[in-house]
Structure formats: structure tokens, C-alpha cells
Amino acid sequence: MFLPRLLPAHRLLAGGSLPLLLPRHSRLALRPAVAMSTSSSAAAAPRAPARRATLRGVVFDMDGTLTVPVIDFPAMYREVLGGEAAYAAARAAGGGAVDILHCIESWGPDEQRRAYEAIARFERDGLDRLQIMPGASELCGFLDARQIRRGLITRNVKEAVDLFHQRFGMMFVPALSREFRPYKPDPAPLLHICSTWKLSPNEVIMVGDSLKDDIVCGKRAGAFTCLLDETGRYGPHDSLPEDVKPDFMVSSLSEVLSVLEEHFDLDLVLSADSRI
Asked: Quick one: CA torsion of 267, 246, 154, 185, rounded to 10 degrees?
């Protein structure tokens, strides 16, 4: 049976059985109480089963999450920034990661225009090779069967989102591209989707393959977070800094389905506005 890599708070639960998930803020608040529950009197007292968090919406990243990664980002960054030395300096300044959109925001109009043209060229080349991520169709069918909303946030352009919808026949509403400002990792796009759905962020989970964009966006918004790490590039869950540590880590979208089934209340929502 697949077991997701969970926050350390889950490992504090006694008994060795699979824990039930509480809302993220509640879990953090309960850590001291869990650690103190080893006394004989506490052990003798009957325990009520923990209540699982209600999940009403899933928001996905697109590139590298719903679609197979096809864009050569290092090559894009080298061209936009002006060569290997500039790319290395930007990586060093970003702690090993490059936020190219943030980098060019401070440039002059002509430099920005050339940069956006280069990015658009790489993105157009990627559209020609666009492929659906294995497990995406099954996961969307699972969500639809339970009337769980699904949205999308990407730093790619609207043209790419429209092509994704058309080519693979699955719709995400709302679907926010980088034309929506501010973009990830700012929580604004995720909070906008929650507001559109009339849901609290703690009823939503953000799923993506980027710690600095997707997970930080979700955490800042107050949503649950799930990191898709197909290759293990981020290392063990316990090694991640707390400010970017997701609630879950998985290596495939099929494992996301298992996380949702095992840790959330997925009862059908039958109200008239349950689907948008």
C-alpha cells in the first residue's frame, strides 16, 4: 500500500496506525499535546477518532504537474539572462533556483520585450510537444465523480492553457495563467480561486512540482500542499526547510489520488453550486 511522506507532526502520533489528517493549522497547534500524551492516564483514556479534513477543491500547477516537462528551462534562462555566467549568478542569488519572471520585472522596457519574446519562443516550442502527465485523466475523473472542484494556476501564458484544455479535453475552472497578477508564489491566484469557489483555503489542496512556486503559494494562502517530485530531486521530506515543506510528497499523480482517499473527507457535495 502506498504511504505518502507526511509532515513530522503525523509521525508523532502513537500506535503505528495510519493517521487521520486534521487541518494544517490544527495539526501544528496539537503537536505539544500529542507529544505529551504518553502518560499512563492518557493511555488509559478512550480516544475519539480524529476527524479528517474536508476537501472541496484541488488546484493544480500545469507544466511538470498536469503535463510532462518539455521546456528546456536552463537553456531559456541562459538566453534571457545573457549567458552562462549571468545564469550562474542568478542561481546563486536565488539559492539554486531562478525566478526568471521576477528577474526581468526590474529591467527596462526594451530589455523586457526581448526577454518575453525569448520566453514565448521556448514556450511555443514546448506547445508542439505537449503531453499529458500519466495519471492526470484518472485523477480528474476521480475528482469529478466526487464533485470536487479543480482549478489551475500556471506561470505559462493563456495560449498554453487554452491548448491544454483543447488537446486533452479536460477543463479547469478557474484556470489562471501568468496574465493574472501577481503570479505564484504570491498567494493571490490561489486565494482568488478559493473566493470564486466560495471555499475556505483549508478546504483546498495545491498540487505542483515546484517548492518555490506551488508549495509556497499554497502555504501562504493557508491551503494544504502536495509536492509532485517524480525524480526525487528535492531529497527526503524531513530535509526540507519548514517554510517550503509540503504536507505531502508524492512521485506520481496516481499517488495524489491515494493521498486524497486516505487523508481527506471526500463526501459528495450535492448543493446547487457544487460545481463551477
From this structure: 130
Q: How far apart are CA 48 and CA 63, in angstroms?
A: 42
**pLDDT tens, residue by residue, 181-201:** 999 999 999 999 999 999 999
C-alpha cell at 271: 448543493
Does the annotation mark 213 as catalytic?
Answer: no
Annotation marks residue 61 as catalytic: yes
- The phi, psi pair for 17, rounded to 5°, reads -85, 160
pLDDT tens digit sequence for 221-243: 999 999 999 999 999 999 999 99
Q: Which of 173, 254, 187 is nearest to 220 (CA)?
A: 187
Return the H-helix or E-strand segment holding 189.
helix 188-197
Nearest to 244 by CA among 185, 188, 181: 185
